[in-house]
Amino acid sequence: MDATWLMLVTAFLRLLLAGICYRSYRRSKSQVSLTFTVIFLLSVVTGAARFFAVYLGSTLAYFLYVFTLLVIAALVFHILALLGERWVKKTHAVGILFILSFVLAFVRTFVDGGVVNEAVPTVARLLVQLIPPFSFVFASFAFWKYGTGLNPDGRFFIEFGFLLLAVSLFSGYWLAQWGWLSLIILLNAIGTMCVAVGWLMCVYDKKNVKFHWDERAIK
How far apart are CA 80 and CA 77, in angstroms? Predict the structure, then answer.
């Protein structure tokens, strides 16, 4: 029952964050904020799929969990493309990573399920295991470089909260495997608190909330 309540609360918070990003998109028309909206909506699906996979033993739910997690990683690359990273090709990166996500999700489902362990090459196993820690580092880089403007205003608290939530989202599976579940909960709690405080500061100052990444994004 505790796990059910945790899933529901987490889903509500992620929907709230998706709403904040969508409101920013309505005002700024930035594709970055729209992509963040999609990421947080997908994270709700990810959380629900993981719950059904762990507590009901559903192989299909586990596949959906891994697949949506990897699609989120692809969308982060898309954000970098929108922000003008030259080494990320906007037209190709998302499509390639989407297909790769499907393949790796299929492989990982069988690797973790013990169905075709011997048939999966060692390189593929290593690649699959490296995805969560790679996403941990990549999410930190992306959000810290482009998300935070380092200004002590409401937007900074919102964006710093997004950074913590992103780190928790992308590295959750990896941290759980190492027994650091309390760290995941702590990152979620602090990140959500930062977003809430920042949002209240923006409302109190009557600012038109436009994130720093909206100002940098290529139109």
Answer: 5
